[in-house]
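Field log, afternoon session.

UNIT: design team B
ACTIVITY: writing a sequence onto a fixed backbone
BACKBONE:
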């Protein structure tokens, strides 16, 4: 008797499965366009994700490359100036050697003046300019006041009277402020 009831249950389950499979087949046939639309959207999402990941990786590589180039540039930025200053350094070495046996101070001074002139010309070619400060109006963007002294005349009030250290600009940007004495 147990065999009959088991067989009956199996046949009932098989009938239900058949009905369910037919219903699923009908639903699948009816929803086929929705699945294809859904599949298209999934494919589009996958393509956009892939494009996003590739773009993100490319941007990350760009950031790393530019950072590496920036570091290399900073390490070699002064190379051009230093190479051009080597000639002046050689001139100073020759001048020092010449002072060991020199009896004529005027000739040594003339050599040092020539080296100084050569150095100034070289630096001016690289964009360095001296600031003219004496008898100009005190400007905090260009000058650093070391002290104030009474002005010798009314017209010198608020103006630079003396310059203790020259100020310099590199390509019109202040790289060292002039240290000055201001009249008050």
């Amino acid at each position: 008797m147990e065999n009959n009831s088991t067989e009956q249950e199996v046949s009932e389950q098989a009938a239900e499965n058949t009905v369910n499979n037919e219903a699923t087949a009908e639903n699948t046939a009816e929803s086929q366009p929705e699945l294809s639309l859904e599949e298209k959207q999934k494919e589009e999402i996958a393509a956009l994700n892939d494009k996003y990941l590739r773009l993100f990786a490319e941007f990350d590589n760009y950031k790393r490359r530019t950072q590496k180039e920036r570091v290399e540039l900073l390490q070699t930025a002064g190379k051009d100036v230093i190479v051009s200053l080597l000639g002046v350094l050689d001139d100073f070495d020759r001048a020092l050697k010449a002072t060991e046996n020199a009896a004529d101070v005027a000739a040594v001074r003339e050599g040092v003046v020539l080296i100084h002139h050569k150095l100034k010309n070289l630096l001016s070619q690289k964009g360095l300019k001296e600031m003219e400060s004496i008898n100009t109006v005190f400007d905090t963007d260009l000058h650093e006041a070391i002290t104030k002294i009474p002005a010798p005349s009314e017209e010198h009030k608020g103006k630079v009277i003396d310059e203790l250290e020259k100020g310099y600009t590199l390509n019109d940007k202040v790289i060292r402020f002039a240290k000055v004495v201001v009249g008050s």
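LOG NOTE: The helical segments are 2-76, 79-101, 105-125.
NEXT ACTIVITY: expression trials, pending approval
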